[in-house]
Amino acid sequence: LDEVVVSAVSGNGAQLLRTVHEDKPLSYIPETYDNCEVSPGPHLNMIVGANGTGKSSIVCAICLGLAGKPSFIGRADKVGLYVKRGCSKGLVEIELFKTPKNLIITREIHVANNASVWFVNKKPSTLKIVEEQIAALNIQVGNLCQFLPQDRVGEFAKLSKTELLEATEKSVGPPEMYQFHCELKNFRERERELEVKKTNFLEKMKQRNERYKQDVERYYERKRHLDLIEMLERKRPWVEYENVRQEHEEVKQNRDHAKEELKKLQQTQSPMTQQIQEVEKQWRNLDIKIKEKTAEIKDTSQRCKQKQDAVEKKDKQIEEIQQALRIKNDEEMDRQKRMHNARKMIEDWQNELNSTGNSENLQPQIDSINNELRQLQEEKANIDGEMSDLRRERENLEREKKRVTDRIVQFNNMMNLKEDKLRGRYRDTHNALLWLRENKDRFKRSVCEPMMLAINMKDNRHAKYVENHISANDMRAFVFESQEDMEIFLREVRDHQKLKVNAVCAPIVSCAENRPSRSVEELHQYGVFSYLRELFDAPHPVMSYLCSQYRVHDVPVGTEKTRSMIERVIQETKFKQIYTAEERYSVRVSAYTNQTISSNTSLRPAQFLTVTVDADERRQLENQLKDINRLFQLRDTQLHTLYERQKGLERKDNELRQQKKERLERKNKRKQLESKISMKHDSLKQMEQDAINLEEESQQTNARIKEINVQKAKLVTELMQLIKNCITLNILKVDLVLQSTTVNSKKNRLESDYKAATVQLRALEQQVSDLGGKKRVLLEKCKGLMRKARHACNLSPDQEIPKDFQTAFQDLPSTLDEIDALLNEEKSRASCFTGLNASVVEEYNRRAQEIQQVTEELEEKKSELESYRQNISQVKERWLTPLKQLVEQINEKFSNFFSSMQCAGEVDLHTENEEEYDKYGIRIRVKFRSNTQLHELTPHHQSGGERSVSTMLYLMALQELNRCPFRVVDEINQGMDPVNERRVFEMVVKTACKESTSQYFFITPKLLQNLTYAEKMTVLFVYNGPFMLEPTKWNLKAFRRRRRQFEQMDQ
Prior knowledge:
Strand content: 5-15%
Strand order of the largest sheet: 1-5-6-7-8
Oligomer: single chain
Protein name: Structural maintenance of chromosomes protein 5
Keywords: ATP-binding, Chromosome, Coiled coil, Nucleotide-binding, Nucleus
Region (Disordered): 650-673
Structural class: alpha+beta
Family: Belongs to the SMC family. SMC5 subfamily.
Largest sheet: 5 strands, antiparallel
InterPro entries: P-loop_NTPase
Radius of gyration: 67 Å
């Protein structure tokens, strides 16, 4: 296999260009191969063409035509995206040189379902057969050492050492080298399994059985404790029986002794009963006499009390008579005082009456005052009516003002909501806004707040169009009318406050009134309902900036109808940007083809402008509020004027009423005085008639008191006699009580002695009864404990205790407390051995047998492991020696290439452990400056140009060793400086044009001047544009013939 020839890349081949919008990849736009055929040379093929002409389309065709996956190319992930837009399918055909007959592979790609149809030598085939054919030719389009597309150049430097080794083995090593490497990794993995698996398993089994051994020992120890518990539980009933039997004998003796004492006590108690009866009789006689004397004393005392009450009643009658006399004296003195006061008042009223003039001339004055008061009341009523009307108007104004104010507050709340969104998303912008509001006086001209606050949507459903059209940076930008003001603002907030804010300056010449290129009525046929400017309101500077920068006055907004006929709209209207219901279309003209290219994106949901404030309504409300406040002031002035007039009328009314009151009082005063004097004379006559004779009353009172004192003396004499009789009776009663007390004391002493003897007798009787009952209970208990003890030892009623039990009982404690203590201790110890049963012993024995079996198997595996190690040694020798030689050859060429560039580089086989075959890798180390050390090639340490040079030289080092039929390198020289690019190019030409090397494709958009070219090079120029000839009309011989004719004419 000498070369690969891409003989045809025909059909709807496609190049993918990336359109960039706000640093986000948007879409791929296919351009422009309808039909293309490439015939490369057998050695170095230089494919040269400007960016966008379709060089990489050739690389894509090679990859896809040789069963490569789209991911190998690093562009689109679906094969259908590589077909030109507007075409339903594409076709790639590749002819590969092969003896005795070339191999032609055809791939037909269908866009609809991303499916492919395969042909081999013009016959239908399958992907699997194609892959087998390609693998047989050692073609690896997924190997970066063989096939390096433009979009994966950077990935080569990112390959790990292990990945680079595997790629190199596949690319330049013998076919069996990579196979040996895989076998070594598998052998090593199997070796590790044999070393670890059985050994670990055996160790785990031994460790587990050691734990079982401990469980077995604990099981037997628990059994010993349980046996001792069983023997203690057998002895315990016998000890209980013996204790109860001894207690029964002791109770029987105590009962017999108590019976003897009871008999003696009963014999000594009979004489004491007769003495108690005699003393009881004597005490009853004395008690009867005491009761008789008590009755006489009670009767005498009752009579004494009656006499005493009668004496007290006489004293009370005397006091009442004296009190009546004192009352009459007080009444007479009060009458004399009242008569004096009446005479004094009559004299004063008479003097006042004499001084009062005639009242007939006061009535005309009163009538005149009444007329004036009526006129004042009418005027006050008129003022009250006017004030009521004004108050009602004021209340209506207050209600209207509240309604307008509430509506304005709602608008302010909406603005606050927008401001909250600004604060949450752009904190620095919000801080700058607060500073601006406090420092507006520092600016010469007006300054508009951030656009997201200044813009007000007429319908919040259209907010998404504006937010998708205006960039986020401008949405939060402050708008200035003066450049000087903007510099002052930015100097303060950016330099001093360190805030990240945006600011823009409106155009000097206003653009806010710019007219659209076409009227919106003309666009209704396309579903367009408005231009973007008409969807929102904004301050004049903001609108001027948006019209200038974003041309919002000339961006149409349409509906679903617009989207359905978008191609026609783009073609006929020539707008650069168009909005439909949910998409945005951008239109541009290709610099190569002069064709119109459009791209569309889905609209993002609106975030900031969804809050809508009706600016017209707000202005109307603010004007209305000003009118209401002006009317408020007018009504307050009118009310104040009326209030002052009302206060003047009130003062005049009060003065007239006071004058009227004085006239009326003067008119009525004479009549009142005459009436009072007459009434007071009548009262004085009545008081004179009510006079009291105090001397006569005093004589009558003394006579009545004397009569009562005589009656009182008689009652006191009778009372003294009754008191003497009562004292005599009490003396006799006390003597009888003393005699009764003596007898009662003797009776109580005898009864106490009798009761004590009776209590002792009853106690003895109870004791005898209790002891008898206890004896019977203990007897029954003895019988029960005997049965329980025999049952515990499994003995019949007549059977003796076995000798082995007696022997075991002798070694155990002899008291219940000691037995219970030992029993609890043994139970506690036995309870510590939980989860143990006889199956533990069985499991222990079974695992011991398994350990023996595994030990024998382990011995067999050791011999198998030795065999694996021998295989590893043999395969390692067959793999590692050729690999080291291969790496040495690569290193020699790689170092020579670097030396020719006055740099240094080396390639070595790197591993940390020779036995870890999956850790082997190729390490590339380079240095580009004489004052540095060799550093490993990584994506981070070297620059992009240095990585490109290193990658290219490594691939060149593989070139002469390569057993693959061809190599593709796409635009690897892009990041190189001119010196390195020239050196690398010369090496590529020198290496790739040798007879023994494989076919080489080198794609580049540019070449340096005065490069060295070889005869075996094939240079393929890729042109593209609207005036290119079709491939079928291309005739190189005709072009040369025409060129010679022109030269002859010039001569």
